[in-house]
Amino acid sequence: MCRHLAYLGPPLTLRELLFDPPHSLLRQSWAPRDMRGSGTINADGFGVGWYPDGGAPVRYRRAQPIWSDPTIADLAAVTASGAVLAAVRSATVGMAVVDAAAAPFAEGRWLFSHNGVVRGWPDSVVPLAAALPVRDLLTLDATTDSALLWALVRDRLRAGAPPARAVAETVTSVAAAAPGSRLNLLLTDGHTVVASVAGHALSVRATPTSVLLASEPHDDDPGWREVPDGHLVTATATEVRQHALAAP
Ligand code: GLN
């Protein structure tokens, strides 16, 4: 199962966020503490998206272990941003291992990640997929559950839903269609981040000027707080809110 994180706050280098902490995303790629389901390590790809000077996001994603790519290490040392979303991937058995299957998925200002699995894939969610424009199905990033979840969230965002509603409705409808799914989603536009906690762990560390959400705390700072299952977190750099998923 994948591990992901989102950060909003004063600019940090990608190295400070992804590589330097004692239990960094890099370390979580080969020694995660909390893997549920079938995965053991997160070696099937990784991706990071950031917002240069507050502009539209830039992404770098690859279908190889984060530890085996010298480019990301070099890039991370010289790239700083006040808004970052990153993930390391453990592909669900049978799902494509290609660059475009790694989070973040993106459109406009949005960056998106999924940690988990849709049970009964793909049959369980055919009725939900059938409600999407055919064009979206023909242009999915990859033939994976995560890419379809992004298409479902994006469809709601395009229709004008606020991000918290787009995430909550997607989680609720997919959970109903595919019981037992694990649906930890992360969505940001660089100012706000929305995260669902549904089947996997998520921890939050907030300071007066920053917020970091991560599948696993990346250090032993006492400020980390685990979000209970079945909740939605909505955060800016200065405010964190939490609601039960059924009532966002
Ligand atoms: N089902 C997702 C995929 O195959 C897996 C994400 C995860 O949490 N491992 O990409």
TrEMBL record:
GO terms for biological process: ergothioneine biosynthetic process. Pathway: Amino-acid biosynthesis; ergothioneine biosynthesis. Keywords: Glutamine amidotransferase, Hydrolase. It is an enzyme of class 3 (hydrolase). It comes from the Bacteria. CDD domains: YafJ (cd01908). One of its GO terms (molecular function) is hydrolase activity, acting on carbon-nitrogen (but not peptide) bonds, in linear amides. Residues 2-248 form the Glutamine amidotransferase type-2 domain. InterPro entries: EgtC, EgtC-like, EgtC_Actinobacteria, Gamma-glu_amide_hydrolase, GATase_2_dom, Ntn_hydrolases_N. It catalyses: gamma-L-glutamyl-hercynylcysteine S-oxide + H2O = S-(hercyn-2-yl)-L-cysteine S-oxide + L-glutamate. Its EC number is 3.5.1.118. Coiled coil: none annotated. PROSITE patterns: GATASE_TYPE_2. SUPFAM superfamilies: N-terminal nucleophile aminohydrolases (Ntn hydrolases) (SSF56235). Catalyzes the hydrolysis of the gamma-glutamyl amide bond of hercynyl-gamma-L-glutamyl-L-cysteine sulfoxide to produce hercynylcysteine sulfoxide, a step in the biosynthesis pathway of ergothioneine. This is Gamma-glutamyl-hercynylcysteine sulfoxide hydrolase.
